[in-house]
Design brief:
The structure holds two protein chains of two kinds. Chain A is built from 19 helices and 34 strands. By secondary structure, chain A is of the alpha/beta class. The longest helix of chain A has 20 residues, at 109-128. Chain B folds into two domains: 3-131, no CATH class; 147-254, no CATH class. The radius of gyration of chain B is 20 Å and the shape is globular. The chains are: A alpha/beta, B alpha/beta. The A-B interface holds A 503, 513, 583-590, 593-594, 602, 609-610, 612, 615-618, 636, 638-641, 649-650, 653-654, 656-657 and B 71-72, 93-96, 185-190, 193, 195-198, 218, 266-267, 270-272, 274.
């Protein structure tokens, strides 16, 4: 027999100025199963909670309805309160008469009527609620950080500094990511490599960090606190334990291929380090281009290597499992392939039309030109440079609908660098808007204009060659006139997009992505570094375009979340998860692919089925650690064998029925 | 091979199978007192197998009978046309039994005297252990498959509502459609549960419509279009046409869609893929 207590909150005047809370309490007292109803100024306050606890004792209540703010606000508060009573904390319902009523309706009868309806629904549901118990799951105190760019590096260092073990996994032969490719960073113009390489060294030297380069995630099992990740270590063919990193093999390698790191501006050997300051500072053999591995003819690196047995052409990829308690995805971005999008810009036919990252290598002191800006076609120093912004960004028709955020600032930086390095140079920047919302950003942009950069408001409609050189044509929308600029070099500040393979990787962890392929945060404002999957966090540009300061800040934020999780020995799971009625489950498996958290598996059991006393049949099982209680499976199940505890179909239908009473 | 020769071949093959002990019994068609009707025959030995018939009156789908002994540890033999073979694939996909549980005697079929054969798109069995005779030509794809769905689509909204209201005013909720459906494999059907708040028990048009729509959606992406639902309906309601409308919509979303062509494909309406079409959003 349910003895329900209903407690109506004024929320100061938040609710009571719109809803007649006295009338709501009066009406509640008459509802079926309700033994006691009261109102109070602040139910969540200490005296408010005490009042509820006293009423539970005095009136022998066994179920509670609180009519107040959103359950997202104080459901946990009241659950904690119920722990002090004899009532199970899940025999509680919150009727949201603030956000769903007082805040969205004018004062009056109707708002009060709606509040009564909401309370009636909650009363009907709470009568059908059943006691639930949470369970404890252990936590593996080790974190995996996927991606060794500045985001991954920062997150790994922060977690390691807090005393937890970290594995930093990077698929390239070196960590460093995009940041180490850059020359200088806005707005302070400090050298990008000078500030990122010391962090890279810190990573390799940190006793709590295990660095895995040239490695990938092959498979993921498990759930928050208990992930088992299959790591695929690609064969490096160079014994990293004994290699001294002397570099003789790299000098002598006869095979030369285009350097990805230098964006095609130079070549690299088949046995190579990504760049001179690479961490680890030891080469790997690129098996796709190595003559020995492809044709079995060469072997020069093994001959010239001073360390016996260091080069091993027989090395194989190795896969192994490792357990983690938490994961940070920091897979970063890449620039769009603008050639495929913008035929009118030459689609890659003109060597002197380059993207921003290529320019970074061109202007980088450790780049192929040692920092001399020489155009790719003939090595001449360009005198007139056109910079085009928003190439692929803010262009829903041809490119991406979003703003890539960092380009306005690095376009200004590029202009500054050209004007600084080339005497008498002229720089024209075509733009739609100039966006500088960051500390000291506007000042930097201002300075660039004072340096002499000419900002032209408009998109470039065409880039063509007039026989002598490149011509950029576009509309100056402030003058309302077509303009043509003869340029020696054109730099396209192209859009960022999710990195290669980020989608598959996100899928392995069960996290979701937004329409543009960026990893989806659990809440855009309040849970910005968490994914929807418990224990899987994100950092940096894998979530959306970001500059370095934002990336580093987010990486530290994600690290803080991971540290918080790993500091616990075990964690409580929510009991509001899917439950399967085995007697109804026909094992059809419709629920299995629909589960976004991969919490459902099919298992074979034996049971009595009519005249078959030991029949073998398939049923679905829910993993309590993985299930997040989203309820997708309950919809897929035709027979209703799956129900969501705390939100059973019957409970919700009772609520709906109560609305029409 | 004409139908008589085919019938002889069926009898011989079933007898061989039963003699060899490869199946406990074989499911096929048997004679009745009426020449235009056949019954289901479960032959347990060669003698019984000699009573199998194969003619235009073999209108029932045999596949559903496999569910009777789905938990048995012996194997069951069955004659399977295109429609039965697709039903078997669906049952395997829905984990009702393992492929090894059935010995499938494939019988290519160009149609019998059943309404469903007019929209049949698969004449030859898509899964079998042995094929009893040569495959027959498949029908010209899509010629008649969605003719009835298109007829319903051609109506205006009001006319269409009136049409389905009329259909479901005649439904007597005997659930014969569910009973006959080879992909209805739930252990307990939602219509039989006493606490399903959304499915009223009254005999009213709206409760009947709720049943009709729910049933159609429960089977839509697994429906192999065998038309058993419609064949067994004592009120003669055009319910396959209703399901086919949903299948036609699926086809428009996914390109070609035929359930049960293999035992691996999942449920179209129960799957999510990042590459799914979302023009409607």
């Amino acid at each position: 027999m349910s003895k329900i207590g209903v407690f109506v909150c004024h929320c100061g005047t938040n609710i009571s100025s719109v809803v007649d809370v006295y009338k709501v309490a009066e009406a509640a007292a008459q509802m079926p199963g309700v033994s006691y109803a009261a109102e109070y100024k602040y139910m969540c306050s200490e005296p408010g909670q005490q009042m509820i606890l006293d009423a539970i004792k005095e009136h022998g209540l066994n179920r509670i309805v609180i009519a107040a703010c959103s359950p997202r606000m104080h459901e946990t508060t009241f659950r904690k309160m119920l722990k002090k009573s004899k009532i199970n904390e899940y025999l509680l319902e919150i009727a949201n008469i603030r956000e769903q009523d007082a805040w969205v309706h004018p004062p009056g009868e109707e708002a009060t009527e709606k509040a009564i309806d909401l309370v009636r629904m909650a009363v009907a549901k709470v009568a059908k609620n059943e006691p639930l118990k949470s369970s404890l799951i252990p936590i593996t105190k080790k974190a995996l950080v996927v991606g060794g760019g500045i985001a991954g590096i920062q997150a790994a260092l922060d977690i390691a500094d807090a005393g937890h073990e970290v594995v930093l996994l990077e698929r390239e032969p070196s960590i460093g990511g995009r940041m180490v490719m850059l020359d200088k960073t806005f707005p302070t113009l400090d050298c990008s490599a000078c500030i990122s390489t010391p962090k890279m060294v810190d990573v390799s030297a940190h006793p709590n960090i295990k660095l895995l380069t040239y490695a990938e995630v092959a498979a993921v099992k498990g759930y928050i606190g208990n992930f088992t990740v299959t790591i695929r270590q690609k064969a490096k063919y160079v014994n990293q334990d004994i290699c001294t990193g002397c570099g003789i093999c790299e000098d002598k390698c006869p095979k030369k291929v285009t350097s990805e790191f230098n964006k095609g501006l130079s070549d690299r050997p088949a046995i190579y380090k990504l760049f001179p300051q690479a961490v680890p500072a030891k080469p790997v053999i690129d098996r796709e281009t190595c003559l020995m591995l492809q044709n079995g003819k060469c072997g020069i690196c093994a001959k010239v290597c001073p360390v016996e047995g260091c080069i091993d052409y027989e090395a194989k990829d190795v896969e192994y499992d490792e357990d983690f308690g938490a994961v940070i995805l920091a897979t970063g971005y890449k620039l769009v392939d603008w050639g495929g999008m913008y035929d009118e810009y030459g689609a890659g036919r003109y060597p002197d039309v380059i993207d921003g990252l290529t320019f970074e290598r061109l202007v980088n002191a450790s780049g192929p030109t040692e920092g001399h800006i020489q155009r790719p076609s003939d090595g001449k120093e360009p005198k007139t440079v056109v910079i085009v912004k928003c190439v692929g960004s803010r262009d829903p028709k041809k490119g991406k609908p979003y703003c890539s955020r960092a380009c306005c600032m690095y376009a200004a930086k590029h202009a500054h660098q050209i004007l600084d390095k080339i005497h008498g140079a002229r720089v024209f920047i075509f733009y739609i808007d100039v966006r500088t919302p960051g500390k000291n950003y506007e000042e930097f942009y201002d300075q660039t204009r004072k340096d002499g950069a000419v900002y032209v408001r408009g998109r470039v409609s065409r880039i063509y060659s007039d026989g002598e050189g490149l011509v950029c044509q576009g509309e100056d929308t402030l003058l309302n006139k077509q303009v043509r600029v003869k340029a020696d070099l054109v730099v396209l500040e192209t859009a960022m997009e999710p990195n290669e393979g980020a989608g598959e990787l996100t899928g392995l962890f069960g996290a979701s992505r937004d329409v543009n392929g960026w990893i989806q945060e659990a809440h855009p404002k309040l849970r910005p570094v968490e994914t929807q999957v418990g224990g899987v966090f994100l950092a940096g540009a894998c979530q959306g375009p970001k500059d370095i300061p934002d990336t580093v800040a987010q990486a530290s934020a994600a690290a803080a979340k991971v540290i918080g999780l790993l500091n616990q020995d075990e964690m409580e799971t929510s009991p509001m998860i899917a439950a399967i009625d085995e007697s109804k489950c026909s094992g059809c498996g419709a629920c299995e692919p629909i589960c976004p958290y991969r919490a459902i598996t099919l298992e074979t059991i034996r049971s009595r089925e009519g005249r078959f006393t030991n029949a073998e049949r398939v049923i679905a099982k829910v993993n309590a650690g993985l299930c997040q209680g989203c309820g997708a499976c309950t919809v897929a199940c035709r027979t209703g064998a799956i129900d969501l505890l705390g939100f059973r179909n019957a409970q919700i239908l009772t609520e709906v029925d109560a609305l029409w009473q | 091979m004409n139908k008589n020769e085919q019938q002889q071949k069926m009898r011989e093959t079933a007898a061989r199978l039963l003699d060899a002990g490869e199946a406990a019994y074989v499911i096929g068609f048997g004679e009745t007192r009426f020449p235009e009707k056949t019954s289901i025959l479960f032959a347990h030995n060669a003698e019984e197998a000699d009573r199998f018939v194969w003619n235009d009156a073999c209108v029932q789908s045999l596949a559903k009978y496999l569910l009777e002994d789905r938990f048995a540890d012996y194997r069951v033999g069955i004659f399977a046309r295109g429609c039965e073979s697709r039903a078997i694939n669906r049952m395997i996909k829905d984990n009702q039994f393992k492929r090894d549980h059935v010995h499938i005697l494939g019988i290519p079929c160009e149609g019998v005297n059943a309404k469903r054969c007019a929209s049949c798109a698969v004449h030859n069995p898509v899964v079998y252990d042995e094929l009893l005779w040569d495959a027959v030509p498949e029908p010209n794809p899509e010629t008649a498959r969605f003719a009835r769905a298109e007829a319903v689509e051609a109506m205006g909204p009001e006319e269409r509502y009136a049409y389905w209201s009329d259909v479901y005013s005649r439904c007597i909720r005997c659930y014969a459609c569910r009973q006959a459906c080879p992909v209805c494999s739930c252990r307990e059907c939602y219509v039989d549960m006493d606490r399903q708040g959304f499915q009223g028990k009254r005999h009213s048009v709206s409760d009947n419509q709720t049943f009709g729509v729910t049933r159609a959606f429960h089977v839509a992406d697994r429906c192999i279009e065998c038309g058993e639902c419609e064949r067994v309906c004592p009120m003669g309601l055009p319910i396959l046409g209703q399901t086919q409308k949903i299948i036609k919509d699926i086809t428009q979303l996914s390109g070609d869609y035929q359930a049960g062509m293999n035992a691996e494909d999942g449920n179209f309406l129960g799957a999510f893929d990042l590459d799914d079409k979302d023009d409607f959003m």
